[in-house]
Amino acid sequence: MPLRIPYTAPFPPPTIHPPSAHSLAGSIAALASFLSPRPNSSKTLLLTGAGLSVPSGLPDYRGPRGTYTLRRNYRPVFYAEFVARHASRQRYFARSYLGWPAVERVKPNKGYEAVGALGGLGILGGVVTQNVDALHPRAHPDLPTIELHGSLHTMTCLSCGTPFPRADFQTELTRLNPAWAGYMASLPASIPGNPEDAPATTNPDGDAELQPSANPDGDVAPAPGAPAYETFRYPSCPSCLASPPLLEDGSRAEIRVDGDGAWMPGSSGGVLKPGVVMFGEGVDPGVRVAAERAVDEAGRVLVVGSSLATWSAWRLVRRMRDKGGEVGIVCLGGVRGEGEVVGEGIGGVRVVGRAEEVLPEVVEALRRRVDGGEGDGGKGSLRAARQL
C-alpha cells in the first residue's frame, strides 16, 4: 500500500463545550476552570501543534492558509525516498536550504509566552509538541518539553548517529552551492531567506516552495532563474569521513566525496538527515515512551493548535481519555475524533480561538484567582501548585 498523507481535507466543524464558551469571555472562563488545580490531582499536560506557531510566521498544515489547504498537490519527500535516493535528498536539501533562514529567525509569539507563564504558575507539568521549530524550548526552557517529531535545528548521521547543528550544515550548503546561494540572495524580500516574516511558501517542516503551483505528482518545478535540483550538493558526515563506521555485514562503510567535500553517489554511508520525523518514519521509541509517561503522570491534557491528524498525537489524547482524564481543545478548525474525547456527557472543554489571543487572557484569569482566591480554596490551591 502506498504511503499517503493523513487527513488533508478539513475535519467537521467543532461543537463548542460548554455552551457558555461560544464567547471569548466564556472561553476564557471555561479554560481557566479546566486548568485550575484540583485537590489531589496531577498537573495539566499541554499537547501543541503547528497552529501555535502561525503568529510567529510559520504556516500550519490544515488551517485556512495551511500547506495542504493552499497547495492541494503538495507532497513532501518521504523517509524511504530520502534514505534510498540521492536525487530525493538533493530536492529535500535544496528546498530546506531556502526555508532554513525563515525557520532560524522565527521567534516565540504571545501564545508561547503564555505557555511559559502557565508553567510558572504551576499549572502545567510539561509539554508534548508536534512542532519541529524549537520554539517551546526557547520560550520556556525550564518547562519540560518533549519534541514528539524532533527538531529542525539538528542533523543526525544515518550511519553513526552523530548529531550536528543545523546552522553549521547551512553554512556548508552555502559553501557547496554558490549558484543556489546567489539565487536565494536574488529573491524578493517576501521570499524565505530574506529578513522579512516567513510567507506561506515556507512549510511547517522548514522546506520552501520555489513557486506557488505544484505539478500533479506533488513535486515543485524550480522557478525561472533557479538552479536545477540535480545540481544541489550536500556534505557528508565528517565523523564517518574521518572514521568510516561498520556496516551490518561487518565491512567498513565507504564514504566518497568530491574535491569540495560533498557527498557522492556510490557511498555506503555518511548521509546526514534532519532531526525530524519525516513522513513514513516512526517516532523514536524513547520519545514515544516519554510522551506516554507524560500522559500517565498528568491529570488532564490541553490540546492547542493541533487537528490531531497524526496518529502519534491522537493516540496520546485517546490514552488520556482511556485512563479517565479530561481533554481540553483550543483550535480554530475541526479536530480528529473530538466528539469521542470532549463534549456533553464526556466533559472537558472545546473552544474555538487563536492561542495567542486566548491563552494570555487565561493566564491573567488564573493569576486573578491566585491573588483574589476565587473559587473553593482557589488561592491556596494555585499557590500550592506553583510551589510544586
What does this structure look like?
- The protein is α/β, with parallel strands linked by helices and 388 residues long.
- It folds into 2 domains: 19-56 and 109-150 and 283-387, TPP-binding domain (Rossmann fold), CATH 3.40.50.1220; 69-107 and 151-276, no CATH class.
- It has 13 helices and 9 strands.
- The protein has helices at residues 24-35, 67-70, 79-84, 86-105, 110-120, 135-139, 166-176, 178-186, 238-242, 285-297, 311-322, 355-372, 378-387; strands spanning 44-48, 124-129, 145-147, 150-157, 163-165, 272-276, 300-304, 326-330, 349-351.
- The strands form 2 sheets. Strands 3-2-1-7-8-9 form a 6-stranded parallel beta sheet, with helices on both faces.
- The chain is elongated and about 70 Å long.
- 44% of the residues are buried.
- Pfam families: SIR2.
- It comes from Trichodelitschia bisporula.
- Belongs to the sirtuin family. Class I subfamily.
Which features would summarize this protein structure in a list?
388 residues, alpha/beta, Rossmann fold, six-stranded parallel sheet, three-stranded antiparallel sheet, 13 helices, elongated
Brief rundown of the structure:
Residues 188-227 are annotated as: Disordered. Helices cover 35% and strands 11% of the residues.
Cα distance spanning the termini = 49 Å
Share of residues in helices: 25-40%
Low-confidence stretches: 190-201, 211-221, 375-380
Largest sheet: 6 strands, parallel
Helix/strand class: alpha/beta
User: What is the typical, i.e. mean, pLDDT?
Assistant: 86
How many strand segments?
9
User: Can you tell me the CATH topology of the largest domain?
Assistant: Rossmann fold
Region (Disordered): 188-227
GO molecular function: metal ion binding; NAD+ binding; transferase activity
Keywords: Metal-binding, NAD, Transferase, Zinc
Binding site for Zn(2+): 157, 160, 237, 240
